[in-house]
Amino acid sequence: MNRVHVVVPAGIDDPARVSGGNRYDREVCDDLRRAGWQVTEIAAGGSWPRPDPPALAALARALDALPDGALVLADGLVACAARTVLVPCSRRLRLVVLVHMVFGGDAVGADDEAAVLAAARAVITTSHWTRRRLLDRYHLAAAGLHVARPGTGPAPVSPRSAGGGRLLCVGTLAPVKGQDLLLAALGDLAGLPWRCTLVGSRDRDPRFAAALVRRAAATGIGDRVRMTGVRTGEALRRAYQEADLLVVPSRAETYGMAVTEALAAGLPVLATRVGGLPESVGRTAAGPPGLLVPPAHPAALGAALARWLTDRALRDRLRDAALLRRETLERWPATGTRVREVLAAVGAEPDAPAIRVDR
Asked: Could you give the number of structural domains in the chain?
C-alpha cells in the first residue's frame, strides 16, 4: 500500500499560522510524494483542538467517504480532539496518529486523548520524551509508539559577534513560550550590552503580546527589544544568521524545532529544562551546545544570560559545541523515511473486519 490520506489542520501553509506542527506535516507530505506515495490531504477546518459540531461533522463526512481499509495519517491536534469521529472510523480504517503535543486534560480531555491513541494502529511522536510521556500517562502498547524527530535543512554558519549580545527568541508570542519570563530576566540585565529579537506571531494571543510591549517599556528596555512578527523561509534564516544565541524560555515544549534550526546554523542555545528541549539541544564530545535552566524561573534565566554575556570562554566553548552538534542533526529525509516505515508497516497489516457506524 502506497496511498495515504493525511488529516491536517486547515491552513497549514498559511504564513499567519506558522507552527512547528504545520511545518512538520508539510515536510512529511512532501517527502511521501517524492517517494512515490499517493497523498491526499484532508484539511480539517475549525478551531482545533476545540472544534465545534460543524467541524466534527465535516471531518466525519470526509473520513466516511474513504474506502474500507484506507490508510490515514492524522495530525494529533485534530485527531485527539475528535474522539467521537476517529474511534468509530478506526474500526474500518488504518489509523495512524501523529502526536506533536500531549494534551492530557489541557484543551483535550485525557480520556478522549487516550481513546483515540488506543484506537490507532500506530502512533508517531516527534520526540522520545513525548513517547515516554504517553506511555507513562496512558495504557498504550509500547510496540505501537514510534519516534520520528523533526529534521533540519542545510544552513550556513552564523558569524559570531565580539560580545555575543545578539539574542533571538523564536516562537508564537504566548504564555507557554515564556517570552514574559525572558523580558523579566532581561530587565535585570540593563547594564550589559545586548539586544533581543522576538520572532513570532503577535495575533494568537494579542493581550499577551501587548503585555510584553508594556513590560519592556516599564523596565526601560523597550528600545532594545524588537518584535518582528512571523518570519518564514529566508527571513527566518536571516534571523538566525544575525544572532549569537537562541533563547527558549518555554514553560512547556515537546521538542523545540527552533532549537535544531538554530543549531543547524551553529548557534548555541539557552533553553529551559522542560519536556523535549534537552533532547533537541543534545550533547557532543565537547559538551552540550548550550545551557539549560529550570522552567518558569526568571532569576535562573537571567543568571545564565549574564554568564553568556560576560564570559567569552563560555561563549567560545558553547559555540564550538554547537558547530559539532550541527554535524549530527537529523535531516528531513531521515524523518520522512521513519514515517514511511511506520505507514508501510500499518499498510501491510491484515485487514480488520469493516464496521460501518451510523452517525
From this structure: 2
